[in-house]
Design brief:
alpha+beta; OB fold (Dihydrolipoamide Acetyltransferase, E2P); 2 domains; 6-stranded antiparallel beta sheet; 29% helix
């Protein structure tokens, strides 16, 4: 069938008038930008155009709820971005509820008013996109939402003189493999009750900064720089621990370079190592 007949099919079997069918299909085609495709057959359409026809077939019925199960999964990246923007615009124009299933977290963050993160059939967290990003309920959500993913370190809370610190241990248990991160302000006070207990510290790459040597407590070596245009993701290693940071795209860091860095531990997240549930932290 042509694109027009595909979009009209559900209305025809529901016995709508020819005029009503024509009006709804043309209106949907205009919204989706496929007015010039209506007489074409599926084999002559691009992947993005086929997806728009499928969307049109759904919306002409004007359902109260529209379920989309990975609608962009088989599209190339450029078309995915284009159709994603169209779905967002369509949602704003029509005001219908859309339940959108995806494994792509960028789609979830950019399209969702609310996100449900599901693992093995169990809901881990429901909330607004930035609420889930800034206050992940457990280690799974923390590691899944965000690209590049949150850096996670296992260790203990300890006292070093007058400071409360997080000590990230390492399997070889040698002194040089301990990464020590001072906690400051309210975060230090909140974590005092966890003194000596096993916790997981999570910190996002954008909350680890390159700083002058005198402002740093940590030296790290560059393993791999990923240059992505406007920014560069650096894979670093320090005291036996690997992690990532995000820096401006003009960074000239190369493998083997030493950098002085500072962890913004006031933006860190803490999780119980036993249950992997959230303790404290975040924005």
């Amino acid at each position: 069938m042509s694109a027009y007949d595909n979009m009209a099919f559900g209305l025809k079997i529901r016995k709508h008038t020819k005029e009503e069918i024509e009006r709804r299909v043309v209106e949907a085609a205009r919204i989706l930008g496929i007015e010039d495709c209506l007489e074409r057959k599926p084999e002559t359409l691009s992947g993005g155009q086929r997806q728009r026809v499928a969307l049109g077939r759904a919306i002409v019925r004007r359902p109260g709820i529209c379920l989309m199960d990975e609608p962009l999964a088989n599209l190339d990246m450029e078309t995915r971005i284009q159709v994603r923007a169209e779905i967002a615009r369509l949602h704003q124009q029509l005001g219908m509820t859309m339940v959108y299933v995806t494994h792509d977290q960028s789609e979830a963050l950019s399209l969702g008013d609310r996100i449900a993160v599901i693992r093995r059939g169990s809901i881990q967290q429901i909330g607004r996109p930035m609420e889930v990003y800034d206050q992940p309920r457990n280690v799974f959500v923390a590691g899944f939402i965000g690209s590049p993913r949150m850096n996670l370190f296992r260790g203990t809370i300890a006292r070093k003189g007058a400071q409360i610190v997080f000590e990230a241990g390492h399997p070889d248990h040698t002194p040089s493999s301990t990464l020590v991160l001072p906690l400051v302000g309210d975060m230090a006070l909140r974590m005092t009750e966890w003194m000596g207990r096993n916790v997981i510290l999570g910190i996002r790459p954008e909350h680890v900064r390159c700083v002058p040597e005198e402002a740093s407590t940590t030296e790290a070596k560059v393993e791999v720089p990923e240059r992505l245009g406007a920014y560069t993701d650096l894979h670093l290693r320090s005291s036996g621990h690997s992690f990532q940071i995000r820096v401006p795209g003009e960074s000239e860091a190369k493998p083997g370079d030493s950098l002085w860095i500072s962890f913004q531990t006031d933006r860190a997240h803490f999780f119980d190592a036993a249950t992997e549930e959230r303790i404290s932290g975040g924005a």
